[in-house]
Amino acid sequence: MNEPKRWLDDGAPEAVGQMLRAADNERPSPAALDQALAGVAVGAGILSSASGAAGASATLKGALLANSVFLKWSLIGALVTVGAGGLAVGFSAPFSSPHDEPVASPASSTPSGAKAPRAPGAEEQRGEPPAPSAPKAEPNLDDTPGTAPPGTAPPAAAPPAANARGTTDGRQARRPMEALKGASASAVDTGVVDVEVLAQETKLVDRARAELGAGQAAGALFTLDEYQTRFPRPRYAPEALYLRMEALLLLGKTQAARQVATRLAASHPSSPHAARAEAVLKTTIP
Amino acid sequence: MSFGTSTMNAAQATGPASAAADHGARVQAFVREHHAFAWRCLRRLGLSPADADDAAQRVFMVAAARFADIAVGSERAFLFRTASYVASKARRSARRRPESLQGDCAQERDFTPQADELVEQRRARELLDRVLSELPRDLAAVIILFEIEGLTTAEVALTLDLPSGTVASRLRRARDEIENRVTRQLARARHQGAAR
């Protein structure tokens, strides 16, 4: 059978020709490519930690499957089960990888588990280069949720959030760091519940949860670090600890996750998050 | 042969750490090579530039997860099928989102200095996207792959899992449909312009 000519070479009407050429000329931004590259780097960590290489980690994840928070992660399972031969999408267990071939370990794909590229939605991917000594250089992977890690730059070191998409895409809307810092400080100093500050806290925790839900564990850790730095007396401390624990589990940092779970259970024993953390601990600590 | 085969051989030859690094490099190269294709497909499948950025990331996360299963020569077929699924999810999500929050950053994405040309191209793309969104998906897919992305009919057949003859017939139908719709759209625009 003869290959048909392209419409552009075969008498396409002028308006159609314009449309096709315009479509052909369209290109993604460099930031979009960076975002995709970051996604595969982070995704490699997720899949390797989900592949069951670390027994304890797998056990933890098995326990977490029953957790309602993890039900939101079904998208990850859906995505990784999209078959090469079709679109048979499974909505089974979130971390049920349909293949067992070796994949990059967390250590290799995300060196030290701390240098994973910023996940989607992160400032770096939106054209905001991190400050040289900004706290986001590495997420906090150890069990120090209550204190800023040594060398962590103060909020002023972070670049202003000049997110170009913030005005057009509400998902990325973000307040400038300086405003966050000032608002946080005022709330801490006065002890008055500032609705605006509360909204900012909520937004950060929501973002961390969303990043975790999208499998972007490193991104979630960065966001939780930011939350911890901006809000020394966080109202969502139990949830932040819980999200940190989950993010660490995703990165295969089982020991650090257990430390966070222990801390959560000890510092917020009446929290429902603590109950879940204890359940996780029971499955991992004989 | 799939991408994963050589990776496995490398693992046996140089150890798991080296194989993992090699695998990572291959995935990154794969993303760099095919990102524009996947992104443009997502745009033509109805996503805004901002949503296409996010969706492209998801597409490549799926591709990275299934890297070993992607046969050489069928990369774009895999990416288009995955993009179609991801785009359908993203469109549903966008419909649930308030219109004011739906990013349409077309103006941000054009780097051409000539404003007139930029506006013309944007209008042409908007018209194309409107027409494609009105077409049956099977016809739109043929236009996207053959006319815009330049795949051969054999590649389109592989991608859409169709006989080549069906691809050719769909192409003819799609062209007829587009020509009719574009003619109607332009006539309507002229009519509205004259009425003002």
CATH topology of the largest domain in chain B: Rna Polymerase Sigma Factor, Chain: A
Secondary structure class of chain B reads mainly alpha
Helicity of chain B, in percent? over 70%
User: Which sheet architecture does the biggest sheet of chain B show?
Assistant: none
Shape of chain B: globular
Query: What string gives the helices and strands of chain A in order?
Result: HHHHHHHHHHHH
User: Per DSSP, what share of the residues of chain B sits in E-state strands of 2 or more residues?
Assistant: under 5%
Number of structurally distinct domains of chain B: 2
Helix count of chain A? 12
Structural summary, described in words:
The complex is a heterodimer of chains A (286) and B (196). Chain A has 286 residues and is mainly α. Chain A contains 12 helices and no strands. Chain A has helices at 14-25, 30-50, 55-64, 68-71, 74-80, 106-109, 177-190, 195-213, 217-230, 237-250, 254-267, 272-284. Chain A starts with 13 loop residues before the first helix and ends with a helix. Residues 46-137 and 142-191 of chain A have low confidence and may be disordered. Helix content of chain B is 80%, strand content 0%. Chain B has 9 helices and no strands. Chain B has 2 domains: 17-101, Rna Polymerase Sigma Factor, Chain: A; 116-196, Winged helix-like DNA-binding domain superfamily/Winged helix DNA-binding domain (Arc Repressor Mutant, subunit A), CATH 1.10.10. The longest helix of chain B is centred in the last third of the chain and has 32 residues, at 164-195. Chain B is mostly helical and 196 residues long. Classes of the chains: A mainly alpha (286), B mainly alpha (196). At the A-B interface, helix 1 and helix 2 of A face helix 1, helix 2, helix 3, helix 4 and helix 6 of B.
